[in-house]
Design a protein that fits this description.
Elements (H helix, E strand, L loop, with lengths): L2 H11 L5 H18 L4 H29 L16 H4 L4 H24 L6 H16 L5 H25 L4 H21 L4 H6 L5 H4 L2 H24 L14 H14 L3 H28 L2
């Protein structure tokens, strides 16, 4: 494989964004280890490859469909929104993007079949919707505001994180649901805020997410509500002993979260000043997930 093709593959896969998948896996594995005191490296590696492949497939389908729709030529590029720009620079790489998306999805299907074959057929309730979500997110779900809001969180929280816990522990508890719901709310917010700079361009190609439907200022309240709900879940979970008290390590991020929420409210329509907050949002989401994993791990 030539250096240019490899560079394009890495850009289309958006490898710098795959850290979110790794953070979710760390959280799921830590919780599972504390719960069962058992760990299988082959199973973990299989789940990790499937999860990373799923994320790559979504990214590659997104690149391909955004290029085909013309959206890539309209969106302002920021480090966290607007696509990688790879196919604009090299249109011939569109076939490469589609191939990467399909091959990555096939890897997910094969590994998923291997995982459920070991007496885990119940996981199909998560696996099949997950496969559908990978393909339909960019081309269809982005036209349905509520589904567009919750689909990313369902993918990373209720399918990836909860699915991994289910595989590793053999079942689900209230604690597992709390963890997965918190991740869901955070990842919803990751994509929600990243939609703010793209509103005008997205509207031109038929997308209908909340920043388009109700405006950025009202969408900022949804953003704030989801962050607060994620914190409320963790606090209540410690009160009811569903999570260890060390889970409250996530409270260390509150000063930065306050800065983020105030900033998003004030700069919702000032995209140039909003862009740095997209990075802060990404950092806080990763920090929350990893601090939650650390807090759960310290319970040992």
């Amino acid at each position: 494989m030539g250096k240019s093709k490899l560079t394009n593959l890495l850009a289309i896969a958006r490898v710098n964004f795959l850290t979110l998948t790794l953070a979710c896996l760390v959280l799921a594995a830590t919780f599972s280890w504390i719960t069962t005191k058992a760990f299988s490296w082959p199973l973990f590696i299989g789940v990790a490859i499937a999860a990373i492949s799923a994320h790559i497939s979504v990214n590659a389908f997104n690149e391909y469909f955004d290029f085909r729709s013309g959206l890539d030529f309209l969106t302002p590029k920021t480090p966290f929104s607007g696509g990688s720009g790879t196919l604009i620079k090299e249109p011939s790489a569109a076939k490469l993007a589609f191939a990467l998306a399909v091959i990555s999805l096939l890897v997910v299907i094969v590994l998923g079949a291997w995982i459920v074959s070991d007496n885990r057929l119940q996981l199909l309730w998560l696996g099949i919707p997950g496969i559908v979500l990978i393909y339909t997110y960019t081309h269809y779900i982005n036209r349905l505001p509520f589904l567009c809001l919750i689909a990313p969180g369902i993918g990373f929280g209720l399918i990836m994180t909860m699915g991994a816990i289910w595989v590793f522990t053999g079942g689900l508890t209230i604690s597992a649901w709390v963890i997965s719901m918190a991740v869901m709310l955070l990842v919803n917010n990751l994509l929600l805020l990243n939609q703010f700079p793209d509103c005008e361009a997205d509207a031109q190609v038929g997308r209908r997410h909340y920043p388009i439907l109700i405006g950025r200022e009202k969408s900022a309240w949804i953003f704030i509500a989801q962050w607060l709900a994620a914190y409320l879940l963790v606090v209540l979970a410690t009160v009811f002993n569903w999570l260890p008290v060390f889970s409250l390590l996530v409270l260390l991020l509150l000063p930065l979260l306050l800065k983020l929420m105030v900033g998003v409210r004030q700069r919702a329509n000032d995209i140039d000043r909003l862009v740095p907050l997209l990075g802060l949002n990404v950092a806080l989401i990763h920090g929350f997930i990893l601090l939650l994993a650390m807090g759960i791990g310290l319970a040992n």
